Here is the input.
Amino acid sequence: MEAVFDPSRRTPGPWAQRVMAVLGAGPGLSAPDPSRLILWLPCALAAGAALYFALPGEPPGWVPRALLAAGLVLLAGGVMLRSRAIALYVLILGAMALIGLAHAQLRTERTAPPPLEVTGRAVSAEGWIERVERGGSRPRLLIRVSWLEGADTPPRRIRVRAGLGDFAPGDGVRVRAVLNRPPGPAAPGGYDGGRAAWYDQVALTGYAVTALAPADVETGGFSRWLAGLRWRLSQRVGEAAGERTGAVAAALLTGERAGVEEADAEALRLSGLGHILAISGLHMALFAGGVFFAVRLLLASIEPYARAHDPRKPAALIAILAATAYLILSGAAVSTQRAWIMACVVLIGVLIDRRAFSLRSLALAALAVLLISPESVIHAGFQMSFAAVAALIAVYEAWMRVRPAPEGRPGLIGRAWGSFAGLTVTSLVAGAATGAFAAFHFQRMAAYGMIANLTAMPVFTFWVMPAGVMALAAAPFGLEGVFLYAMDQGLRVVLAIAHWTAGLDGAGVMVTAADGRAVALYAFGFALLTLGLGAARLMGGAVTLMALALWSAQSPPDMMITDGGVALARFEDGAGYQATNTRRARFAATVFLQRAGEGGARAERAGLACDALGCAGRTSEGVLIAVTGSPEALAEDCARADIILFEGRASAWRKRRCAAILLDDPARAELGGAELWIRDGRLIRLRAANDARRGRPWEV
Here is the structure.
């Protein structure tokens, strides 16, 4: 009989064996396990979306459509062939990556604002207040626009710094404000407010020049009503709970974090408890789980019903509805969306008698979030949220495979010890999983996060959130006061722990910013660790160590020049980074110091030698920096200085004849701020803040 070629029986080569190990091949590496393939689909989709944001420019409009068509064809072909050949599995993952890249660009097109003429002068606008963001002398108001002076089609949203007065979210207002495009990053690699605003559909930002006035705005509907409801509920919570803790309670119940005091927020971050402010898996699990068990207990207590029906199923259905209401009320942030999807998958598993808390359900949640908002792949919240849950599930599944069979029912001490051990392991695993991603994004690690979480999380889990769930349930009847008081007392304990931990020596460990390549390599290694099996996990550990080694080998820049004409460097006869001017570009200086691993420090003014025409100073690297606004001083500075910060526009003739690096106002605006690496008095590398956004839609 003639042999029939079967790709799944072909002896794999060494590289194929490695890939199959990653995909979860069975014994002997005969073929990858199809049930593990779904775990890698969101990884491939995320990789494609991340690649889009890493591109040096925006691809032409036909590219995403061609890639999407190719990806869908390849994906459909792979599914229809039903082969277990390794090449086919890699093909499917490649198709998902193409779909991810295309989907991210198409999402960018869908969120584009209408054409707007930005003049920098004051214009009038009408709309309704969607959100209030505290900070600075006046709050920032996110306004859903119905009319904008001079615009044929008004943008969806604008953000205006203005006094709130007697207005509240949901109210129609008229404002006259100076509006401009959202700003880019303050430093290379920093947070790009313009890109974030693009996907939030905030076309313009600025400040009001008149007080808010009431306006008759017809648009809004349910979203407008919900914004008002969230604000009123936040105010009620704040008034009933307490002056400080009320703002934290409102953040936990409605997602409104505007009122949280900066000192409390900073203490929570330094202590490693900052995650409690973002409504995520823990909050949703406690909320939906509390509703589920309460309804189940109630139905089980009705003996005739409990004998005829399974009380778990109606309890699961009611818990899904409650979780959905919590999602809508809290503002539906990415972390909350992921948590809601996970909760729904678990509860649907109860409805169909399936165990659903698994890596597969997490993969479905990740796919859903990425399809809704592919830009979330580059956000810290998305990365940390999924990393924590993936690590916890992977550790749990590994423990279930190797744990010894229990001998009888544990006693009270045994159950207490099991709860403590579970909480300890959860804190360790979640902290380890999110620590690196937090350091990548915020250049800070909580040294005593383990202590803070072990002491505060039992209070939060068994006291604060149950009281919050009961408060929300009782709020429609006006009976929430007693539960908010209980919530207030619990939050006082949590905040006391946070402030105590944050006050310990070395509580916040500062690190330098990571290069994008190190972050991508670490993410790949982490995926291997949590999703792979056997040798793949060893490979993942090696890859994560390589990423950390690459990160540690990076040297911080020797100098930063802001677009406002301020240089930060280590000058002679000075300790640490010093600034040529401490009154200007304070925010950019703060961002630079944070990314250089010196967050929390303030740049002192450098001891420059000054005369009537300008100032000059030499850095520890031997670079002479001159700062001047006088054209008469340029000739001398060009002859003796290495870098000149000129306040104004230098002539083209002077730029051609200047031996120094001459950065006038237009040149600095083009760079958007720059980091410089210097060796032996020579510039070896310059990275501009605008390099990463040049040619992208959010650059304009």
In short: The chain has five domains: 7-110, 122-219, 230-510, 516-552, 559-699. The longest helix spans residues 412-442. The domain at 122-219 is CATH 2.40.50.120 (OB fold (Dihydrolipoamide Acetyltransferase, E2P)).
